[in-house]
Amino acid sequence: MALPPAVRLMAIGTMLVFSFLCIQIYRAPSSLSAGGKHAIKIKDMPRDPNLDPTLEPPEPLHRVSGNNYAPDNANSNRINATILSLVRNEELPGILQSMRDLERTWNHKFNYPWTFFNDVPFTEEFKKATRAMTKADIRYELIPNEHWEVPSWINRDLFRESADILKEHDVQYAHMLSYHQMCRWNSGLFYKHPALKDMQYYWRVEPKVHFFCDVDYDVFRFMQDRNKTYGFTINLYDSPQSVPTLWTETIKFLASNSHYQHPDNAMKWLTDKERRPEHTQEANGYSTCHFWSNFEIADMNFWRSSAYEEYFEHLDRAGGFFYERWGDAPVHSIALGLFEDARKIHWFKDIGYQHIPFFNCPNSPKCRGCVTGRFYDGDATLAKEDCRPNWFKYVGMSPEWAVSKDD
To answer: Name one GO molecular function term (predicted).
Structure first.
């Protein structure tokens, strides 16, 4: 039986209205609430903020003008900062790729020095090839044996037995001693190298990473002028099997050092148990959220502080860099989340970046070579590794990155 024309029109109209509402719900920004003077908090993140237009941070910004950043200008506008990379000779192709991208998008304008670290001397082939990639100074540094060797208090037999257990839980690199040494060095020793004693800021770059967006301001001066301590692009969950006692040891440290906790810390981000409750349970209270430290722009004065030095010393003596697989990413992140004002941690939304398999790809005409808003490349299960929703929920994002209700 055919419906009367009026009923058909009403049905069509209802469907159109329903479709319109669905589109608006999908497009609408997530619920916002004031996060104090310096941040806007997002209660959930149904829509990736990278899909919204991304501009530069607000002025003032330091830019190239004449020869103020020329490589041979002894009185340039550069500050005490360097691009830093721990890299082996055999990783030359990978670091050349990373250099090519970062020089093209940023450093060919600002000419900050590169500092390469290795536990063995760099070859002449490595030096020649990397020097050809930049006009800036390059320093090739050897890591002191006392910074790289396994500490005397680590039991080698226990290390091997622990690695067997980690492997049973599918923890990568469990038996690779050099990986454990690298994590320890990146956590608490790199900034003590004599080559960095006069340096305050660094941008960490690893082999085989990509940079997609032109950045036309001095990011180190941005950190200094805005009084930022740490900058990240990607925020992930860690494998709880690799850090089962890291939070337990952290709580032990806090028991006698609670005075180091900053009143505006990010404890709720570190201990959230709603989005990945199984992670928080297996990691004994730690959400496993961390900044992916293969990209970090940071002020080394934080690592040199009493709070961080004493915290690292406690962790180092506990042995988890070898008996478990504590990485520098969770160690740095927990320390920042506890001992620093969370508002001094900056999401560099405008810096397009990839370290396989994750991306930070903003919506900007300055970016090319990545898909806007794409977070991962691979199996769809990787989507759940994104911990940015927790960061935006508990800490917020800088106003320039936030979506206004009126937009």
So the answer is: alpha-1,2-mannosyltransferase activity
Phi/psi for 269 (5° steps) reads -65, -40
Query: Quick one: DSSP state of residue 242?
Result: G
pTM, two decimals, is: 0.89
Is 378:371 a contact under the CB 8 Å cutoff? no
Sequence-separated (6 or more) residues with CB below 8 Å from residue 228? 222, 299, 344, 345, 346
SS3 69: coil
CA–centroid distance for 151 within its chain: 28
Give the integer Cα–Cα distance in Å for 184 and 326. Answer: 8
Distance, CA of 205 to CA of 210 (rounded, Å) = 10
Report the C-alpha gap between 376 and 273 in whole angstroms: 23
* Helix (H), strand (E) at residue 231: strand 230-232
Q: Which among 166, 125, 139 has a CA at the least distance from the CA of 321?
A: 166
Domains of the chain: 32-64+151-192+208-291+299-401 (3.90.550.10)
Q: What 3-state class would DSSP assign to 363? A: strand
Residue at 366: amino acid letter = K
**Residue of 354, 368, 364 lying closest to 294 (CA atoms):** 354
Inter-helix orientation angle 306-318/328-339, to 10°: 140
Could you say which DSSP state residue 284 is in? T
Annotated catalytic residues are 296
Residue type at 59 in one-letter notation: E
CA 331 to CA 187: how far, in whole Å? 7
Per-run averaged pLDDT (10 residues), the chain, 407 residues: 47 45 35 44 77 93 98 97 98 98 98 98 98 98 98 98 96 96 98 97 98 98 97 97 98 98 97 96 98 98 98 98 98 98 96 98 97 95 95 83 43
What is the pairing mode between strands 296-299 and 289-291? unpaired
Tokens of 366: 């300055």
What CA–CA distance (Å, rounded) separates 156 from 160?
6
Give which of 283, 323, 353 is closest to 101, Cα–Cα. 353
